[in-house]
Amino acid sequence: MAEITQRKRIWGWYFFDWASQPYNTLLLTFIFGPYFAQTATNALVDGGMDLVAAKAKAQAYWGYGLALAGMLIAILAPVLGAVADSSGRRLPWIWLFSAMYVVGAGALWWTAPGDFSFLWALFFFGIGLIGMEFATIFTNAYLPELHPDENERGRISGDGWAFGYAGGVLALVAMIALFQSGANGRTMAGIAPLFGLDTATKADTRIVGPLVAAWYAVFMIPFFIYTRDTPKPGAVRYRVGAGLSDLARTLRNLPNHPSLLAYLGSSMFYRDALNGMYTFGGVYALGVLDWSIQKIGIFGILAAVSGAVFCVLSGRIDRRVGPMPVIVACCVILVATACLIISLGPNSVMGVSLPQGSALPDILFYLSGALIGAAGGALQASSRNMLTRQGNPERMTEAFGMYALSGKATSFLAPALIGVTSDLTGSQRLGITPVVGLFIIGLILLAWVKPKGDFAT
Fold first, then answer.
1. CA–CA separation, 402 vs 76, rounded Å?
2. Which residues sit opposite 352 in a β-bridge?
3. What is the pLDDT along the chain (457 residues), one digit of tens a residue?
């Protein structure tokens, strides 16, 4: 068999981001998330609930569903990472979780308004989300193997994230240009939805699930062609006991590695806050600003394009100065952006009333989307590069498992806080406020993180 070159390995690795990003872009944030909120709200109103309360309750259901999925990921991520490191085999796990991704996404087709079930919609969405998150853990662990120079890894991580954003943009454009209809029954391209999809049953929106599933199945092919495991000599394929033993030892030793511990704590809070902004951005626009799903899709394209551009730029900055300055700058930008979003209403900005029909709230929300895309993408790209400096080079999948644990141990926190705050205040706008505090906590904990980590030689 011909040797797989470093360039091919890197490009194969990039294609995971390209293939998987639409789950975040189309399902979590800009198409299915708002569709769930809209459909759940209508179902609650039909059941006799007041419209404003129904919107807040639908947002709360979405938050609770995501919180449950996050808890499952948090429990299993470090265990599976440790088992994989004990054998050196990651690809079989990626195949398994890829299957979960495809099944979970594809099943969202069966969420028509006529027989809509909160439980089944969240169940299938959660299956796909868990598959996507676990596949990401195992794929990220290949990053240190792609280049021996840690400075170059910042560029590779940024370019990979940018490539993923580009895939998300193209998938989102395809969705709203070919399938998603507007108020006039036409797509953004001015045509009827392809395949004669019935807008009355929201088939033009529900097709997003099968589209995302097919996208992933096709574009993961380069990843599987160019990626190879390096099994450890003499290792049994899956030594669960050995993996758990190694994990227990790593956890016991965490206090001896204060920089890694502080980084896991910091990233736990700021990534949770960022996920809260991603998850509820489209739901917020639909419920607070009364945007259509097609308009939210355009917002998503702007955010993703901004993210792709700034991931490339931030990757070069990361290569020059390291990931720490990038992470700090992005968190500060996201705190300011979250405050701006909270201040927006359909006819007001920062408490100042505007004339009826003013375009300023929409313009500022588009600007917020661009900032979230730019700072959020750069933050995530530099964060995974930072982990390659903080983690033990010999236990990198386990390190990314703990990274996932730190990201998911409180991943229920932002959705749950948003859900509870939405419930208590009866306001979607005020329900977003917890993300500001989470970003600030993350920034404070960065003070104890060494830029090159505890394992630097």
1. 10
2. 349
3. 457 788 899 999 999 999 999 998 899 877 888 888 888 888 888 888 888 788 878 877 887 888 788 778 777 776 776 666 555 677 888 999 999 999 999 999 998 888 888 889 999 999 999 999 889 888 877 877 787 776 677 778 778 878 888 898 899 889 988 998 877 888 888 888 888 888 889 889 999 999 999 999 999 999 999 988 766 555 445 555 555 666 666 667 677 778 888 888 898 888 888 877 776 666 667 666 677 766 777 777 788 788 888 888 888 888 888 889 999 999 999 999 888 888 877 777 776 777 877 878 888 888 888 888 888 888 888 887 888 788 777 666 667 667 766 766 666 677 777 777 777 777 667 777 888 888 999 999 998 988 876 665 5
CB 406 within 8 A of CB 267: yes
Query: For every residue of the chain, which 3-state class applies, written as one string?
Result: CCCCCHHHHHHHHHHHHHHHHHHHHHHHHHCHHHHHHHHHHHHHHHCCCCHHHHHHHHHHHHHHHHHHHHHHHHHHHHHHHHHHHHHCCCHHHHHHHHHHHHHHHHHHHHCCHHHCCHHHHHHHHHHHHHHHHHHHHHHHCCHHHHCCCHHHHHHHHHHHHHHHHHHHHHHHHHHHHHCCCCCCCCCCCCCCCHHHCCHHHCHHHHCHHHHHHHHHHHHCHHHHHHCCCCCCCCCCCCCHHHHHHHHHHHHHHHHHCHHHHHHHHHHHHHHHHHHHHHHHHHHHHHHHCCCCHHHHHHHHHHHHHHHHHHHHHHHHHHHHHCHHHHHHHHHHHHHHHHHHHHCEECCEECCEECCCCCCHHHHHHHHHHHHHHHHHHHHHHHHHHHHHHHCCHHHHHHHHHHHHHHHHCCCCHHHHHHHHHHHHHCCHHHHCCHHHHHHHHHHHHHHHCCCCCCCCC
Q: In CATH, which of 3.40.50.2300, 1.20.1250.20, 3.30.830.10, 3.30.70.580 is domain 6-448?
A: 1.20.1250.20
